[in-house]
Amino acid sequence: MKTVLTIAGSDSSGGAGIQADIKTIMANGCYAMSAITALTAQNTLGVTGIQETTPEMLALQLDAVFTDIRPDAIKIGMVASEKLIRVIADKIKEYQAEHVVVDTVMISTSGHRLIDEDAIGALKECLLPIAEVITPNIPEAEVLAEMTIRDEQDMVRAVEKISKVYGCAVLCKGGHSINDANDVLYSDGKVNWYYGKRIDNPNTHGTGCTLSSAIASNLAKGYKIDEAIRNAKDYISGALADGMDLGHGSGPMNHGFDLKSRFAES
Ligand SMILES: Nc1ncnc2c1ncn2[C@@H]1O[C@H](COP(=O)(O)OP(=O)(O)OP(=O)(O)O)[C@@H](O)[C@H]1O
Ligand SMILES: Cc1ncc(CO)c(N)n1
């Protein structure tokens, strides 16, 4: 069994963060482990509280995982502060972790800031250079590339710029402002588009967490980055297309959409 570690924040409503990651990793056939960076009190309408884990406790969680069940891939999501970013970077180097996927979480779907403004420098300095691939959405890619993104050409310019500065592959997701389902990757000097059919579903809470965990799971299983992204896109399209509708705001997806036949009675 391949193993995936998610280092991220908890989402009490279960649609994003650690909970989305664990569901996704399991649905993609891997064993899921977690190191929690923060508790968030949130639901489909918004975030009402955040309590960060201490750096010591985060380091202990990472030691506990790495010294026992070594992860084949890692997904890093919400990390709100510089101190925690530095703990993660140090542990990843210490244990020489492989297949690191960084979802550069900055603002939640509901509009809540999930990283301190002054931690973005540490994210750039410490985490991006050790990532195999990072998955910014358009607003995040604008911050990282220090440019405005208006169209698909700008998306290509941004991923190339970020990749050249930080030495990682960059997948910019189109789910915000430009198109909903087309993402672009810059990796090893090449540009690759991943075209997805836009699914008419307002329930997109946790799409970013889900995509990055699905990519990490596929890397753990030995797929190369291109195929890992294709498989991850197919998975998220299935989860969105299921059309589950929970909560009063932008609801979660059905991460277990392809397990439905096993529970046909309920
Ligand atoms: N309506 C949609 N139909 C099909 N695919 C979608 C749709 N919305 C988003 N996606 C896909 O979902 C994935 C995640 O993209 P998105 O831009 O929503 O992430 P994000 O903004 O980081 O998510 P989050 O809101 O959780 O932070 C991408 O592959 C994107 O193309
Ligand atoms: C804990 C957590 N991580 C990431 C996101 C981004 O969607 C969120 N809403 N909550």
Automatic annotation (TrEMBL):
Keyword ATP-binding: yes
Keywords noted in UniProt: ATP-binding, Kinase, Nucleotide-binding, Thiamine biosynthesis, Transferase
Annotated ranges, domain Pyridoxamine kinase/Phosphomethylpyrimidine kinase: 11-254
GO-annotated molecular function: ATP binding; hydroxymethylpyrimidine kinase activity; phosphomethylpyrimidine kinase activity
One Pfam short name: Phos_pyr_kin
Enzyme Commission number, as recorded: 2.7.1.49, 2.7.4.7
One GO BP: thiamine biosynthetic process
UniProt xrefs under InterPro entries: HMP/HMP-P_kinase_dom (IPR004399), PM/HMP-P_kinase-1 (IPR013749), Ribokinase-like (IPR029056)
Catalytic class of the enzyme: transferase
One GO CC term on file: cytosol
Catalytic activity: 4-amino-5-hydroxymethyl-2-methylpyrimidine + ATP = 4-amino-2-methyl-5-(phosphooxymethyl)pyrimidine + ADP + H(+); 4-amino-2-methyl-5-(phosphooxymethyl)pyrimidine + ATP = 4-amino-2-methyl-5-(diphosphooxymethyl)pyrimidine + ADP
UniProt cross-references to SUPFAM superfamilies, sorted A to Z: Ribokinase-like
Associated pathway: Cofactor biosynthesis; thiamine diphosphate biosynthesis; 4-amino-2-methyl-5-diphosphomethylpyrimidine from 5-amino-1-(5-phospho-D-ribosyl)imidazole: step 3/3; Cofactor biosynthesis; thiamine diphosphate biosynthesis; 4-amino-2-methyl-5-diphosphomethylpyrimidine from 5-amino-1-(5-phospho-D-ribosyl)imidazole: step 2/3
Family: Belongs to the ThiD family.
Protein known as: Hydroxymethylpyrimidine/phosphomethylpyrimidine kinase
Gene name per UniProt: thiD
